[in-house]
């Protein structure tokens, strides 16, 4: 038995993701700047949603405060680069470290309790962090926002154009996707999924439930923080309203619409959210000229409810169903162990 | 058993639910390589006893020692790490995984991969995965359900799911496997298969403690057993001794069944 036999259990192939990303990376050759800006925005959300999908789908926990980690990353980067003049890469690392530390501080007490206490704890935490962004005016610039965040650089190259940033963010998404998939297809992933399969049996085979929930929460906080850091460099101006509880809820909606049982759901969900959001922005004012800005939350709230009723596993299984109609699914042939297992029968009770 | 090596000792274990004493001062010891059974009528406290040993329920007083280490007040996952695994009366397979993944999850405590090495998929991780997969296939082969390895676990027939639980409990090379009513819900053929698996594993040195209803199985495969009634231990010994114990006969077997039972023994 060798490496290849693992394929019977897990699809660890890099072919699928490589094709997807190769096609995606061709888009700048044909797409307009508008298209690239949209795709870059999807990339920011996708990076957050990959971590959040693992947390929701595999660790079975709901977070209503990921906007806070998004903000911690963004403001850490902003402060360290614009105010202190330090390297943006160092700032990304520091932001990720702070987010990880904060996730530990929230996670340790809440994961001792069963149930959805994380949702409550993160909701409260998100509001506290939002208030801090607004009130710590000497560091964050308060409600006026933080201006003049420098572009991110690598070996003298400045990521200023939409095109260069598109590649940068999606490279991060690619790495996060493979990293997360590797976790899911391993001892850790089995441990996490076993909790959903049967918590009592997971306990009995020695899976330390709290430890893995906590680790996934920390990883998702790190991904979110990195995404926030990159966002700060991309838009060069941030203000607290980007990181409200509403943002946390939108992130959760993306994850659920995409589907929490598959890591690709993160990309599908964030793409759906951004594209629908753009459509709404264009068409709703055409039909309802006097409408206020809050129609989005109503629309996406409704979409969430409909998703949960009609496709609780999100869009990805629907895509796979459609794809399955076009290709015959390959199933591993049953292995030839049956013959010798029968050989010892019949000597005991007779 | 010529070479008696103590593996588990239950000392004065007691559980009080409100005013009800569910298990009252029960003690017994199990030696390495034994098949040891706990029997008793419905509501005798067998399951409570079992749950205290596996850490699902905290005991009111008394202790459980496993190879000299105290298990009392340990969490279930720590008990697994100490080398005691179990199966469940009402099947608890991981129904969101394939059969082989179920068994590989059983090897959780023997593996070293952590979240970082897993994410980076270092060569050591791949090596460990391959090794565990091989071992899982061997365990499935040992219980005779290797042909279902890549099926979803919840698609298996009931009896095979129980065998799967045994494979899952065995892959981590535990010192002791606890079986909670392993024969419950099985037909005659499935029971026969299960008994065969248990005896085969015992021949390789595994120790079993099981709680069971099915008298025929208990008497045919266990080396020693204790009988509990109303939470109190009323008898202990080999199956033959149990049949001759007047207390046990009165409380549990009844006169007719006792005579029938002698034939089996």
UniProtKB/TrEMBL annotation, chain A:
Its main location: membrane. The keyword Transmembrane applies. Coiled coil: none annotated. The keyword Thylakoid does not apply. It is found in: Cell membrane. The chain crosses the membrane at residues 12-30, 36-55, 62-82, 88-108, 115-133, 165-184, 216-237, 249-275, 287-311. It is a multi-pass membrane protein. Keywords: Cell membrane, Membrane, Transmembrane, Transmembrane helix. This is Branched-chain amino acid ABC transporter permease. It comes from Lysinibacillus xylanilyticus.
UniProtKB/TrEMBL annotation, chain B:
The keyword Nucleotide-binding applies. One of its GO terms (cellular component) is plasma membrane. InterPro entries: AAA+_ATPase, ABC_AA/LPS_Transport, ABC_transporter-like_ATP-bd, BCA_ABC_TP_C, P-loop_NTPase. One of its GO terms (biological process) is D-alanine transmembrane transport. Residues 8-255 form the ABC transporter domain. Keywords: ATP-binding, Nucleotide-binding, Transport. One of its GO terms (molecular function) is L-isoleucine transmembrane transporter activity. This is Leucine/isoleucine/valine transporter ATP-binding subunit. It comes from Lysinibacillus xylanilyticus. The gene is livG.
């Amino acid at each position: 038995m060798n490496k290849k036999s693992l394929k019977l259990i897990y699809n660890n192939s890099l072919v699928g993701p490589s094709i997807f990303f190769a096609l995606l990376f061709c888009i700048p050759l044909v797409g307009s700047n508008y298209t690239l800006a949209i795709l870059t925005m999807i990339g920011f959300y996708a990076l957050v949603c990959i971590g959040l999908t693992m947390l929701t789908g595999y660790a079975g926990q709901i977070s209503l405060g990921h906007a806070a980690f998004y903000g911690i990353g963004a403001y850490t980067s902003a402060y360290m680069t614009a105010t202190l003049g330090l390297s943006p890469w160092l700032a990304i690392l520091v932001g990720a470290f702070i987010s990880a530390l904060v996730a530990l501080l929230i996670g340790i007490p809440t994961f001792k309790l069963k149930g959805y206490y994380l949702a409550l704890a993160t909701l409260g935490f998100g509001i506290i962090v939002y208030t801090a962004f607004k009130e710590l005016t000497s560091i964050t610039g308060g409600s006026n926002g933080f201006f003049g965040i420098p572009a991110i650089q690598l070996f003298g190259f400045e990521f200023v154009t939409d095109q260069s940033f598109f590649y940068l963010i999606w490279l991060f998404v690619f790495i996060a996707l493979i990293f997360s998939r590797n976790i899911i297809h391993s001892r850790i992933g089995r441990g996490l999924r076993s909790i959903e399969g049967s918590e009592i049996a997971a306990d009995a085979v020695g899976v330390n439930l709290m430890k893995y929930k906590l680790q996934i929460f920390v990883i998702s906080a790190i991904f979110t923080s990195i995404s926030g850091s990159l966002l700060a460099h991309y838009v060069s101006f941030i203000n607290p309203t980007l990181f409200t509880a509403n943002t946390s809820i939108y992130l959760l909606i993306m994850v659920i619409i995409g589907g929490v049982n598959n890591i690709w759901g993160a990309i599908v969900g964030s793409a759906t959210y951004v594209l629908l959001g753009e459509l709404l922005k264009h068409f709703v004012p055409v039909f309802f000229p006097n409408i206020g800005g809050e129609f989005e939350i109503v629309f996406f709230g409704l979409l969430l409810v409909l998703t949960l009723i009609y496709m609780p596993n999100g869009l990805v299984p629907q895509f796979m169903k459609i794809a399955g109609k076009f290709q015959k699914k390959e199933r591993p042939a049953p292995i030839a162990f049956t013959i010798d297992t029968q050989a010892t029968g019949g000597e005991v009770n007779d | 058993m010529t070479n008696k090596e103590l593996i588990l000792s239950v000392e004065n274990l007691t559980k009080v639910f409100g005013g009800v004493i569910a298990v009252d001062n029960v003690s017994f010891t199990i030696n390495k390589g034994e098949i040891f059974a706990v029997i008793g009528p419905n509501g005798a406290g067998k399951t409570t006893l079992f749950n205290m040993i596996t850490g699902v329920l905290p005991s009111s007083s008394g202790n459980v020692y496993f190879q000299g280490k105290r298990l009392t007040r340990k969490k279930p996952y720590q008990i697994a790490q100490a080398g005691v695994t179990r199966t469940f009366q009402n099947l608890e397979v991981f129904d969101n995984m394939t059969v082989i993944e179920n068994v590989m999850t059983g090897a959780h405590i023997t593996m070293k991969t952590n979240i970082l090495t897993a994410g980076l998929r270092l060569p050591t991780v791949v090596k460990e995965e391959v090794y565990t997969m091989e071992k899982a296939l061997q365990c499935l082969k040992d219980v005779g359900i290797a042909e279902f390895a890549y099926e979803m676990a919840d698609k298996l027939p009931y009896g095979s799911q129980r065998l799967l639980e045994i494979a899952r409990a065995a892959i981590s090379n535990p010192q002791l496997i606890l079986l909670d009513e392993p024969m419950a819900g099985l037909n005659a053929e499935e029971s026969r298969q299960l008994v065969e698996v248990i005896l085969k594993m015992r021949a390789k040195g595994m120790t079993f403690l099981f709680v069971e209803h099915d008298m025929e199985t208990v008497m045919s495969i266990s080396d020693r057993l204790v009988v509990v009634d109303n939470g109190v231990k009323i008898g202990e010994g080999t199956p033959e001794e149990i049949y001759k114990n007047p207390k046990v006969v009165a409380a549990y077997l009844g006169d007719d069944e006792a005579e029938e039972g002698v034939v089996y023994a």
